[in-house]
């Protein structure tokens, strides 16, 4: 049971259920290959069956952590910060992004977009999920659309999502890791036929890094 004072700070975004934080190389999407500090926040009810971080779903298993401490840790390592989850927009991101901005840091988010967009972002990677679709607002603001492809139907879903984003949004298809041997040939063929799309791979897994 979280005490009332801590709960109030969590609700205000001054504390967040921190699952893990680490310095690594961004492995996916537009910024792949870039050194970045990752802040993984617990809590997600989108429930993708193929999620490779299911341990992030239950926010109660991750301790509420003071945001200023998280920011202090992040500022030691990199000028590029990636906030991910779980689903980070479950929580109010206004305070943490304001504190990171005070340090002059570039802030990226990886989100399903299922909750209202809060915070100040230099880069928004929208990875929509069928079970809980994004809010209309985030389609207009996303810099990158990354659709995870598990089966053939996901290509149809990808096109439906691409029709909603802004014209400058970069479009990616990314194979679901456990199905990559089957899905990659399908994605390659699709991108060659529909060159508005690009292929995203989880290169950090090939590099054997977090």
From TrEMBL:
EC numbers, comma separated: 4.3.99.3
SUBUNIT field: Homodimer.
The UniProt record lists the keyword Ribosomal protein: no
UniProt KW Lyase keyword: yes
Boundaries of every Radical SAM core domain copy: 31-210
Protein task: Catalyzes the complex heterocyclic radical-mediated conversion of 6-carboxy-5,6,7,8-tetrahydropterin (CPH4) to 7-carboxy-7-deazaguanine (CDG), a step common to the biosynthetic pathways of all 7-deazapurine-containing compounds.
Cited PANTHER family: 7-CARBOXY-7-DEAZAGUANINE SYNTHASE
Cofactor or coenzyme needed: [4Fe-4S] cluster; Mg(2+); S-adenosyl-L-methionine
Superkingdom of the organism of origin: Bacteria
Residues annotated to bind [4Fe-4S] cluster: 44, 48, 51
Protein name, entry field: 7-carboxy-7-deazaguanine synthase
Cofactor note: Binds 1 [4Fe-4S] cluster. The cluster is coordinated with 3 cysteines and an exchangeable S-adenosyl-L-methionine. Binds 1 S-adenosyl-L-methionine per subunit.
Organism: Galbibacter marinus
GO BP: any one term: tRNA queuosine(34) biosynthetic process
Pfam family, one: Radical_SAM
GO terms, molecular function: 4 iron, 4 sulfur cluster binding; carbon-nitrogen lyase activity; magnesium ion binding; S-adenosyl-L-methionine binding
Record family assignment: Belongs to the radical SAM superfamily. 7-carboxy-7-deazaguanine synthase family.
Annotated binding of S-adenosyl-L-methionine, by residue: 50-52, 86, 127-129
Alphabetical keyword list: 4Fe-4S, Iron, Iron-sulfur, Lyase, Magnesium, Metal-binding, Queuosine biosynthesis, S-adenosyl-L-methionine
Pathway involvement of the protein, from the record: Purine metabolism; 7-cyano-7-deazaguanine biosynthesis
Residues given in the record as substrate binding sites: 25-27, 40, 84, 210
Catalytic activity: 6-carboxy-5,6,7,8-tetrahydropterin + H(+) = 7-carboxy-7-carbaguanine + NH4(+)
PROSITE patterns (alphabetical): RADICAL_SAM
TM stretches of this protein: none
């Amino acid at each position: 049971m979280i005490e009332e004072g801590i709960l109030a700070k969590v609700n205000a975004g001054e504390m967040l259920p921190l699952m893990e934080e680490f310095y690594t190389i961004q492995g996916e999407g537009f910024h792949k290959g870039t050194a970045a500090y990752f802040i993984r926040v617990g809590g997600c009810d989108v429930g993708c069956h193929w999620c490779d971080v299911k341990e992030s779903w239950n926010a109660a298993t991750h301790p509420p952590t003071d945001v200023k401490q998280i920011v202090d840790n992040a500022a030691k390592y990199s000028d590029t910060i990636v906030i991910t989850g779980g689903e980070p927009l479950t929580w109010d991101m206004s305070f943490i992004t304001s504190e990171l901005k005070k340090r002059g840091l570039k802030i990226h988010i990886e989100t399903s977009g299922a909750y209202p967009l809060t915070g100040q972002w230099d880069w928004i990677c929208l990875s929509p999920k069928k079970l809980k679709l994004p809010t209309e607002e985030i389609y207009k603001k996303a810099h990158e659309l990354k659709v995870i492809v598990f089966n053939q139907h996901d290509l149809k879903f990808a096109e439906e999502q691409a029709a909603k984003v802004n014209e400058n949004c970069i479009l990616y298809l990314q194979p679901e890791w456990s199905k990559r041997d089957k899905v990659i040939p399908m994605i390659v063929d699709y991108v060659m036929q529909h060159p508005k799309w690009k292929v995203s791979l989880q290169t950090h897994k090939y590099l054997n890094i977090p």
